[in-house]
Amino acid sequence: MLSNTDIAELLARQAERESGILSRAFRRAARSAFLWPEEVANVIAQNRSLTELRAIGPFIERQIRHWIDKPPHSTHRAPTIRRDFVSLAKARQLLARKPAWAKILRGDLQMHTRWSDGSGTIAEMADAATDRSYEYIAITDHSKGLKIAGGIDEQALKKQGNEIGKLNAFLRKSGRNLLVLRSVEMNLNRRGEGDMSPESLLALDLVLGSFHSSLRIVEDQTNRYLAALRNPHIQILGHPRGRIYNFRIGLSADWPRVFAEATSLNKAMEVDCYPDRQDLNIDLLKIAREHGTHISLGTDAHHPWQLEFIELGLAAALKAKLPADRIVNFMPIGELKSWVREVRGRAPRRP
Ligand SMILES: [Zn+2]
Fold it and tell me: How far, in Å, is the centroid of ligand 1 from the Cα of 150?
């Protein structure tokens, strides 16, 4: 029986054979296959229409039904640019086998709002987090260096901090058990340097640092990762490889060395749970496990509904057999805050 991941690969290959609108439709459907909440085979078995799934119209539905009836022989492995992605349907099956795992999760540590390139307000993200019974979320809008994503400067970050402070006061008053953390996804250059003043970063609860440029370099980038991890202002390295499904393979490095360095600095590497990122992937998480590295799960949500992507990260961590005590968003808020304090305390003192 074809899984959604198999269907994604068939759709992606079909896109390569078609051109124009049709090619784009197949490409979009391939990418969306990772988001379908249940296996196509189940939907068909229940006599439901596939058009209820994202990015499937009647034309693509006919093609998929044809593949299901007569599975193509050539189910070669996906090329690297599409390999090692888990579908949401599969992730849900994995998590259903160990329901206790997802229950340890206390929050989501990467999301964007209207302050940069997200579509929701901070309050809307907080509502979505409350629906998921989270204890905390980190608001991580882009920093000023990433103009294309509406990155914010120190002044805007401060204003955002005030908005978060007011929202937290409101949440407390209304008896909701959610704390919104002030954070940022700071843009890092190739030398691992950020683009925000140390003072503005110290006012935050947590700082993520991520690379958003020079992501197609094929040479080993170990030194770049080591430099980023040694940046005293960040605690989490976001979407480390910079890979994107069917678009970009991402960077390579001597990963054991990178994870060893992260561990020695007590910093976390992220699983960006966005379906076409899934970065770190399972293989790298296994290396992280061997080195005892802290891992942070972040959906990179740009809309409130996208908080559901967290299941992809939870499933990857489960599959890689990461111990629960290595996952920073499994920590109660007090412990999370002391971890940040501890990491900051290691940074060399500024004169
Ligand atoms: Zn990013």
Answer: 12
The one-letter code for the residue type at 89 is: A
Whole-model pTM: value is 0.95
Is 305 in the same domain as 204? yes
Number of domains in the chain: 2
CA of 47 to the centre of ligand 1 (A): 40
Domain C-terminal end among 78, 100, 119: 78
Same domain, 259 and 199: yes
The values of phi and psi at residue 14, to 5°, are: -60, -40
Over the range 266-284, which residues count as b (16 or more CB within 10 Å of their CB) and which as e?
ebbbbbbbbbbbbbbbbeb
Q: What is the pLDDT of residues 182-198, one digit of tens each?
A: 999 999 999 999 999 99
Q: From ligand 1's centre to the CA of 351, what distance in Å? A: 31
The candidate with the shortest Cα–Cα distance to 244, out of 28, 31, 20, is: 31
Q: What pLDDT digit, counting tens, does each position of 286-335 carry? A: 999 999 999 999 999 999 999 999 999 999 999 999 999 999 999 999 99
Around Cβ 176, how many Cβ atoms within 10 Å? 14
What spacing in Å lies between the alpha carbon of 160 and ligand 1's midpoint?
Answer: 19
What are 126-166's pLDDT values in tens digits? 999 999 999 999 999 999 988 888 899 999 999 999 999 99
